[in-house]
Amino acid sequence: MEALIKVHCLKHIYPDKTEVSICGLNFEVFRGERVVILGPNGAGKTTLISHILGLLTPVNGTVEVLGMQPSKSFNTIRKKIGVLFQNVDEQIIGPRVYDDIAFTPRNEKYNKEEIDEMVINVAKSLGISEILQKIPHYLSGGQKKKVALAGAIVMMPEILIMDEPFDSLDPKSKVEMVSLLNHLNKVHGITIITTTHDINVVPEIADKIYVINDGNIVVAGTPKEVFSDMELLYKASLEPPILTQLFTRLSKKGINVEIPINMEEAEEYLLKEILQPVD
Ligand SMILES: Nc1ncnc2c1ncn2[C@@H]1O[C@H](COP(=O)(O)OP(=O)(O)OP(=O)(O)O)[C@@H](O)[C@H]1O
């Protein structure tokens, strides 16, 4: 199968001469995958995303999206990618929430009824129907995130890229966002790429994880593979998920348990290995 996105040994130099290198393993995303990029502050996650979006041009290395070079085919590629930036204030441009979400459908010349239906449906799926007439500037941080995400998915793009989508979301909103993202992936086949520092949510939203550290992609694997290697996570300045930490401690105490990637697995392993299942 051909990868939708391929990045090979990228090097970027910002105008102030800051050099960012993302070498090591290749970064590859296949259709329908949910990919999470992890790495400490300043590792280059946003830089990588900006290259995939065609906002930056590499000085070295290659970036290929849907068979094109994003920096050269910016307009074609951007129609196929929905994006949620880390700083949503730079992304929200409409005078009212409704206008902001309707921005791209209006540009694409959909008629009023179609736009109404698209905006109302996406607002409902994000629980923001009540704020469609509000001025975005006065929204809370979490509400702004949801509005920006609504704008990113209103056209049902092939690929959705999100930089720190869970920042400033309350626990309930985070659970809802995870379930919406998984719905978009399963039902609409949208390929999803996410950066996050919220490590505990990663198993819920990742088929594959890339870890960037010290200028290199040092690991690529499933959540199970990546989270089983605590040493590697610490080396990359990442805090392993709480379940990984707990089960590693249990296994050091001689309890023979696999590392679970979510609460359901943890419960299953505990019941199987430590406790006798209660009928
Ligand atoms: N516009 C810019 N001009 C100069 N340097 C920049 C610019 N944007 C990013 N950098 C630098 O590039 C490096 C990588 O930054 P980037 O934002 O890609 O990291 P990140 O992994 O997304 O970090 P974080 O987890 O903190 O969001 C950092 O050293 C940063 O200071």
UniProtKB/TrEMBL annotation:
* Protein origin, superkingdom: Bacteria
**How is the protein disposed in the membrane?**
Peripheral membrane protein
Which residues span the membrane?
Answer: none
Q: What is its main location?
A: membrane
Q: Name one GO cellular component term.
A: ATP-binding cassette (ABC) transporter complex
Q: Which CDD domains match?
A: ABC_cobalt_CbiO_domain1
Give one Pfam hit by family name.
ABC_tran
> Where located?
Cell membrane
Q: Which GO terms describe its molecular function?
A: ATP binding; ATP hydrolysis activity; ATPase-coupled transmembrane transporter activity
UniProt cross-references to SMART domains, sorted A to Z: AAA
Sorted keywords for this record are: ATP-binding, Cell membrane, Membrane, Nucleotide-binding, Translocase, Transport
> ABC transporter domain: which residues?
5-239
Family, per entry: Belongs to the ABC transporter superfamily.
Q: What is this protein called?
A: ATP-binding cassette domain-containing protein
- What organism is listed for this UniProt entry? Alkaliphilus pronyensis
